[in-house]
Amino acid sequence: MQANEPIAELAQWFQSARGMVVLTGAGMSAESGIPTFRDAQNGLWSQFDPEDLATAQAFRQDKALVWGWYVWRMAMVRAAQPHAGHWALTELATIKPSLSIITQNVDDLHERAGAKDVVHLHGSLFASRCFACGRLHEDVHLPPEAALKPSLRLMPPRCAHCDGYVRPGVVWFGELLPQLAWRKAERCATECDLLIAIGTSGLVFPAASLPGIARHRGAKVVEINPIRTPLSDQVDLSLRSTAGEALCRLVTVLKA
Length: 256
Known about the structure:
Layout: H1 5-16, E1 20-24, H2 26-30, H3 44-47, H4 50-53, H5 56-61, H6 63-79, H7 84-95, E2 99-103, H8 109-112, E3 119-120, E4 129-130, E5 166-167, H9 179-191, E6 194-198, H10 210-216, E7 220-224, E8 237-239, H11 243-255
Parallel strand pairs: 1-2, 1-6, 2-3, 6-7, 7-8
Antiparallel strand pairs: 4-5
Helix pairs in contact: 1-11, 7-11, 9-10
């Protein structure tokens, strides 16, 4: 089989699909220089304990530590840029307007590449909300020193409505996914003809169940990932490639 044949097969499925879902994970953002959580060498959890930074209890115990770490992450994301795969996805959405992007990532790289109506299963770094009343607080100041170190201690701002503390807008360990986002993701997976999982470990549930839901309903499921994952043996096509390379090749084939 020649190297371009899997992409050609994917292009055929893409063209015939009425409904299409792209599910992106941490590997998608890693191509823009944002570290994943689980990489043994550089992953965020290889350097920090999630119980100290990513739980409601941690926030109650040390707001300055938790808020400072998330402000550092916000600054890191702001400094990153969408890569070729993000831009290719936006172009694919112009070819197939029914394409839905569902992401496990909490950054805004899809949106900065022009993607519309992205479903964020795990929340967003830039949709902070009050820990007490839940009101959104999107205007977060990023001090210049925020990009320097993850151990910066910063007290979070106060809510203008109830004077509670503002927390990061991400889903912490032990919390439920945003129900509107999950219901939309589940519906898209149920109704699609093609689901492409990009850069996801296949380990984080319930997001990891979406490819199985789609395949159970008869959809083709494709994995794009440079490494094998638990999902690899459960898909119709697995491309050992980065998102940028595979998606740009798909766009080229579709436009040929």
